[in-house]
User: Fold this.
Amino acid sequence: MRGLNQTVSASREKKDRQDLSAQGPSEKNMKQKREDADAKRNRTIYTILGVLFGAAAIALLVYGSGFFQSRATAVTIDGQKFTAADLEFHYQMVYNEAYTNSMYAAMGYGTPNGFDYSQSPKDQIYEELNMSTWHDHFVEEAKKSLTQHVALENAANAEGFVLPEEGKQALENSLSSLEDQWRSNLNYTSRAGYLKAVYGPYMTYDVYKTNLERSVLAQYYVQDYVDNLEFTQEEQEAYYKEHADELDTFTMTQFVFRATVPDEETDAEGNTIERTEEEEAQLLEQAKQDCKADADAVYAALEAGEDPQTLADQYETYSFVQDDVRLGSSVNSAYQEWAYDSARKPGDLHQAEYDGGTSYSYYVVRFEDRQRDETPSADVRHILVAAAESGQTPTQEQFDEAKAKAQELLDQWKAGEATEDSFAELARENSADTGSASNGGLISAITPYSNYVDTFTDWALDPARKVGDTELVQNTGSTVQGWHVMYLAAQGDPYWMLEAQYYLSSEAEKAWMDERTENVKTEPGSGLKYV
Assistant:
């Protein structure tokens, strides 16, 4: 019975609950359900927000690390994708060239290029028409450079070109140089830090090495093409005939009289006597008349057959040169057209004037000769033994010590194999000329118009010189003075022929390069803004 009652009781309770349910929920139950639903909804919202905020924080950390920027495509070249770091490799090369030119221009050498190396490229306008900056210009040039290198790399690989041992060594030397640079700089504790400081925040060693390998491959690929070019005598002669005025040598005797406003004058008490613009103009005009009178007198005297040196001693000239030999391209523009005239003959006289603004020059020129210089060029190897630090003038004792050391090196070479290769090795180990030491002291294509110390050039071009000759030559004219151990490695074509070959090579190389690069497709990517 108990069990039955319990069952009935349970059934009755169930029915009562059903009846209650049918009547609808109570107010108390409704309120509780609303509270439970709100709490659940809030928990869901807070969970979602927590996930979103966490994801945002992670994204900021990843973005700040450069993860996305370093992987974003900055440019696509013929289907190949490249990042900002790839472009920064070339950006740095372009920037370095502009930086160096700007620095030298500021020192008075070369022509200003408009770039101020002391300011950020992003703060300098390159082209006012579209208000582009020097940074914009460098990015565009970097794109062109990368495009060219990629095209050459692809062409080299397609043609089966293999980097020669010399190129492999050059690559190895560059990578070793990188190690030396960052290790010797106290500002950097790692190679990675140095690369980021020099090439930008997204540069890595692997990206640097890949681009360096591409650059070296392209360089030797092009050089291989150029080295195998050959030009006929007819081609070289045709170039010469077209450019004879620039390539011929002109021998001239020249007097220059320069009129300028006299220096400032002072009174008895040392005070500067101020001049008006009119007074300055009058003084310049008087100086011009005096110089013109002297120029006329010298012209007449030369016409009468008087000796030029005697006249130079007699008159106050600004400058005087007798039998001066120079290339046609260097003949003074004030009388260049007269000198180029095919009717010129030895002894012809000419007067010319040049207005320099604050000065006025009068030239008296005598034409002595014109010819095509057939002096053979020369290749030499040398070992420079420094007598003093760069920029310092050595004492006689220092010169004597340097000469003794140079003689020791020459004697050491003669006592050994005495070959060009052994001389080159000695130069690599001992020469103070950092520009040629790594190349075994080799300096090629020396001509009468090369910009080397006179004693160096005169020895190399001495007509009595034979290949294999050696000698000691003193150097008192460069920033590092001392003694050269000289070795004549080869004699080659004269200047005019070298110039013809250079021009013809350049034209052929340009056409060859265009053929390999002109149809390359380049597309900018989102990563370009990270350069």
